[in-house]
């Protein structure tokens, strides 16, 4: 069964390469933090090596300003802000899992994306008419490191 071509003659398959070259201009990593392992020298547990799920083209977009999470009914806690972002990647990228982490390793337009980390909120969106994969994120970075 073939997919009918829209009256305008533009298909989603034709749009995808344009989006990937014009919008997905940064290099992103989706990774899973490694398990805690015992450091024999210090006797303390340290984070083990990360597993890189994906490294390649992508884009990070803010989904609005920070909001407050109501942890107790009627009591807003400023420390529990949610900074929602969307990660856009090509459709053939592996799905990110909840609690995976994301970072930008090459920022072509905004150097403010570097040295920041986001947490994946849920498995990537799936849509019948998709050009890119959308993954919802929450920013973990709490300082600029300066």
SSE diagram, text form:
Layout: H1 12-22, E1 26-32, E2 36-39, E3 44-47, E4 51-62, E5 67-72, E6 75-82, E7 84-89, E8 101-106, E9 117-120, E10 133-139
Antiparallel strand pairs: 1-4, 1-8, 2-3, 4-7, 5-6, 7-10, 8-9, 9-10
Pfam families: DUF6093 (PF19586)
- Name given to the CATH architecture: Beta Barrel
CATH domain fold name: Thrombin, subunit H
Helix and strand element order: HEEEEEEEEEE
Uncertain stretches of 5 or more adjacent residues: none
Helix content: under 10%
The number of helical runs is: 1
Gap between N and C termini: 57 Å
Strand order of the largest sheet: 1-4-7-10-9-8
The assigned structural class equals mainly beta
CATH C-level label:
Mainly Beta
Main β sheet profile? 6 strands, antiparallel, barrel
Give the mean pLDDT: 84
| Number of DSSP-assigned strands | 10
Backbone CA Rg: 19 Å
Strand content: 35-45%
Global outline: globular
InterPro entries: DUF6093 (IPR046075)
Pfam families: DUF6093
Key terms:
146 residues, mainly beta, 1 helix, globular, Thrombin, subunit H, 10 strands, 6-stranded antiparallel beta barrel
Structure report:
It is a single chain. The chain is mainly beta. The chain has one domain: Thrombin, subunit H, CATH 2.40.10. Helix content is 8%, strand content 44%. It contains 1 helix and 10 strands. The chain has one helix at residues 12-22, and strands spanning 26-32, 36-39, 44-47, 51-62, 67-72, 75-82, 84-89, 101-106, 117-120, 133-139. It has a 6-stranded antiparallel β-barrel. A two-stranded antiparallel ribbon has the order 2-3. The radius of gyration is 19 Å and the shape is globular. The mean pLDDT is 84.
